[in-house]
Amino acid sequence: MEEYKICPNCQTKLEGQAAFCNNCGANVRDVPVQDTATSGATTAGVQAYPQSTEVPRGPHYYDRPEATWKEQYFSFKGRLNRKPYFLRGLTLSVVNIVLAWFSQTFVDNSSSYFIGIFGNFFLAGLYFIVFWSSIALATRRCHDRNHNGWWMLIPLYFLVMLFGKGDEGANDYGPDPLG
Fold it and tell me: Counting CB atoms within 10 angstroms of each CB, which of 15, 26, 56, 114 has the fewest?
């Protein structure tokens, strides 16, 4: 008698005690547990795994081809481990340097009043986008350590976010991004 759950989001068969879907990350705590003795080995439209009792693991969140750049850079939901946090932070730093160079080269040295005003408003908008993305990445990194996003305001906590390992297994903010 095998107990299992079916993810309502992606129809993946999960272990009976699973809190999150390994494939799509959906919360399945409230999904009722089924067992093979009463419901049969398969459910219509759901693939059974007769060869193995282990549920296949989905790809990492940051490697999913369907994950858009909006999900990767602007989402406050879920968890983010060290490698993508560092790489995306590095990308945002390069964007920030390019924006600063553009500001110094073109906007501040402009002889036109219109270009100066328009350029400053345009750059302020771009700086806000970079800032928002940085906050979203840091919040998701805090979630990987089972802390809320406000922890990033603690002095020197960024060192813990860069070098500290995240929680193994699922926590309050979702499944383990390392699978």
Answer: 114
**Residue 73 · residue 87 · CB < 8 Å:** no
41-95 confidence digits (pLDDT tens) = 444 444 444 444 444 444 444 445 556 778 888 989 888 889 989 999 999 999 9
Residue 172 domain-assigned? no
Same domain, 94 and 22: no
Backbone angles phi, psi at 16, to 5 degrees: -60, -30
Q: Return the residue matching tokens 């699978």.
A: 179
Mean pLDDT of 97-115: 80
Are 91 and 136 members of one domain? Answer: yes
Co-location of 81 and 125 in the same domain: yes
Q: Does 2 or 52 have the greater pLDDT score?
A: 2
The total of structural domains in the chain comes to: 2
Q: Which helix (H) or strand (E) holds 161?
A: helix 157-163
- What span, in angstroms and rounded, lies between the C-alpha atoms of 127 and 176? 31
Q: Which residue has the higher pLDDT, 141 or 178?
A: 141
Angstrom distances, CA of residue 12 to CA of 30, 46, 131, 133: 15, 7, 36, 31
Identify the helix (H) or strand (E) that includes residue 5. strand 3-6
126 and 78: one domain? yes
Total-model pTM: 0.61
